[in-house]
């Protein structure tokens, strides 16, 4: 058989061509195992999990992220994200997106808000706000990723007075809507409580983000420890449930 007719060779060539096209669509690096900067790009704060993706994209913008997700969908690859904070998820065989280059913080002093990119660490938010005499709802560690900290709830030592950091998120960039639409075929139908919009943060909307048995258990805890619903600033589970 002619080596040029080898199906495995064709598959390899097709994959290489696809990776080359992806690299042409992104500003950040696109690296394969064995590439010189692959190990550095995959390095994580969390050393307990070794990152061994099939491909890593160092995103510099939302456009890079979109290109990477489209590529993964076309190639049938799972997607993993390596943020700049403490968390890390296994990425073996996946397309890994790193966000460390997306590190812009813009403070709107009049509105008392900050616009942050996906790779910002919380210390950067603190420093940017402090320049204007402002202070964010900080947690206990300045090295956490700002997005992960916020979406994880944003538990602050002053949270009982001012609410959690997640309570003060005003908007997510519009690309999120298109991303949700793109992954809809793989959706389980679940919802993420910290991404509920203002119109969705109703008792029924909050209840839909939990399995029924979990929601009822949380409502029972609320009845026991907060029967008057004092702590109701965040996406709230009322003492009586929905």
Q: Remind me, CATH topology of the largest domain?
A: Uridine Diphospho-n-acetylenolpyruvylglucosamine Reductase, domain 3
Question: Strand order within the widest sheet?
Answer: 1-2-4-3
Arithmetic mean pLDDT: 81
Distance from N terminus to C terminus (CA atoms, Å) equals: 68 Å
Helix content: 25-40%
Write up what this structure looks like:
The protein is α/β, with parallel strands linked by helices and 242 residues long. It has 3 domains: 3-98, Uridine Diphospho-n-acetylenolpyruvylglucosamine Reductase, domain 3, CATH 3.30.465; 105-168, no CATH class; 188-225, no CATH class. It is 35% helix and 9% strand. The chain is built from 9 helices and 6 strands. It has helices spanning 7-25, 38-42, 62-75, 122-130, 146-151, 159-162, 175-182, 203-207, 212-225, and strands at 30-31, 55-58, 79-82, 95-98, 105-108, 113-116. The strands form 2 sheets. The chain has a 4-stranded mixed β-sheet. It is globular and about 60 Å long. The model is unreliable at 1-14 (pLDDT under 50).
Q: What are its keywords?
A:
242 residues; 3 domains; four-stranded mixed β-sheet; two-stranded antiparallel ribbon; 9 helices; 6 strands; globular
What is the compact description of this entry?
The chain is α/β, with parallel strands linked by helices and about 240 residues long. Helix content is about 35%, strand content about 10%.
Write the topology of this structure.
Layout: H1 7-25, E1 30-31, H2 38-42, E2 55-58, H3 62-75, E3 79-82, E4 95-98, E5 105-108, E6 113-116, H4 122-130, H5 146-151, H6 159-162, H7 175-182, H8 203-207, H9 212-225
Parallel strand pairs: 2-4, 3-4
Antiparallel strand pairs: 1-2, 5-6
């Amino acid at each position: 058989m002619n080596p040029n007719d080898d199906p495995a060779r064709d598959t390899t060539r097709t994959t290489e061509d696809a990776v080359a096209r992806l690299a042409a669509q992104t500003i950040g690096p696109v690296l394969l195992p064995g590439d010189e900067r692959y190990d550095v790009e995959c390095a994580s704060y969390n050393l307990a999990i070794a990152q061994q993706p099939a491909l890593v994209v160092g995103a510099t913008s939302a456009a890079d992220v979109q290109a990477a997700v489209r590529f993964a969908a076309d190639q049938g690859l799972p997607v993993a994200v390596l943020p700049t904070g403490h968390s890390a998820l296994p990425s073996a065989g996946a397309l890994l997106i790193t966000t460390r280059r997306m590190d812009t913080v813009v403070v709107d002093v009049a509105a008392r808000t900050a616009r942050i990119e996906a790779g910002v660490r919380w210390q950067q938010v603190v420093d940017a706000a402090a320049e204007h005499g402002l202070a964010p709802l900080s947690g206990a560690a300045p090295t956490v990723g700002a997005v992960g900290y916020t979406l994880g709830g944003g538990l602050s030592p002053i949270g009982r007075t001012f609410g959690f950091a997640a309570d003060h998120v005003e908007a997510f960039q519009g690309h999120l809507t298109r991303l949700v639409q793109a992954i809809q075929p793989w959706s389980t139908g679940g919802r993420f409580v910290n991404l509920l919009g203002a119109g969705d943060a109703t008792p029924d909307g909050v209840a839909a983000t939990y399995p029924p048995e979990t929601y009822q258990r949380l409502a029972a805890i609320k009845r026991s420890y907060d029967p008057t619903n004092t702590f109701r600033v965040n996406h709230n589970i009322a003492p009586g449930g929905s």
